[in-house]
Amino acid sequence: MPPDAADAGAIEGEQAHFRALESLYAAAPINRLFDSTLEIAERGLARIRFQIDDRYFHAAGAAHGTSYFKMLDDAAFYAANSLVTDRFLLTTSFNLFLTKPLKAGPVIAEGRWISGQRRVFVGEARLIDSDGEEAARGTGTFMKSRIPLAGLPGYRALP
């Protein structure tokens, strides 16, 4: 196969993996609780667009920390798992830095892979509020599990 055709096949396979990860995210039962969408545009980069409303507020009228953690963890996780085509990664640790209260409105979680290519991966993510300001940042480590991606019901290429 000529080099160009081989490269095209690898790109098509990579894109299929990204779409399958997006499908896996959408199929996770936890995501029925959040109005959110995952986008993986390239290796090592994931974005989750989501909406904060008063269902996620603590008693003082801003988003509870569980919303921050969930979206930061997911964005960093999927950025890292975009590099792994055979196994599901597991979060082994995650550090949060909350810098601004999130009020109602659209938020973007931007995740990116930092390092690691075999068994342990490091990713980071940040939350950007509707004013374009960073509201939080997080760094996590993710380890390859024994769980094959292909065996997970949600992991499939979309038609």
UniProtKB/TrEMBL annotation:
Lineage, highest ranks first: Bacteria, Pseudomonadati, Pseudomonadota, Alphaproteobacteria, Sphingomonadales
Signal peptide: none
InterPro entries to which the protein is assigned, alphabetical: HotDog_dom_sf, Thioestr_dom
Tree of life domain: Bacteria
UniProt source species: Sphingomonas aliaeris
SUPFAM superfamilies tied to this protein: Thioesterase/thiol ester dehydrase-isomerase
Domain Thioesterase residue range list: 61-135
Pfam families attached to this UniProt entry: 4HBT
Single GO molecular function: thiolester hydrolase activity
The protein's name in its UniProt record: PaaI family thioesterase
